[in-house]
Design brief:
Layout: H1 4-14, H2 17-22, E1 25-30, E2 33-39, H3 53-69, E3 73-84, E4 93-103, E5 107-116, E6 119-134
Antiparallel strand pairs: 1-2, 2-4, 3-6, 4-5, 5-6
Length: 137
Amino acid sequence: MQTKPEKIVLEMMANDSFSQWLGVDVLEVREGYAQIKMTVRAEMLNGHRVAHGGISFSLADSAFAFASNSHGQKAVSIETSINHIKPILEGDVLIATAEKESISKSLGQYIVRVTRGEELVGLFKGVVFRKQEEWEV
């Protein structure tokens, strides 16, 4: 039996063509938490033959979206940033782990760690606005 956070993320993924293009696999979802993974492909590389910064950002942003919506209240991002810590190469398997740092009636703050194995390659921070609308799953 699926939990409400899992049902929400399944619905989000079904409508998220970009996360599907990235090749996102959802590993774990619970309230305030999401862990996803993807493999970097050749078409994701920039002119330096490393992953375009938007790739790790997008992976982290997807994990952020899933974690922030997992509470049942619809949430949309209002501010995000990322630190690109290490270069990412074709074939790298990345895992993005999003965790709630704080939450109020209208705002939520999350940290997303992007790792390659045990190595931290990106650190993403995001704030969401929590709408009055609930997910109906």
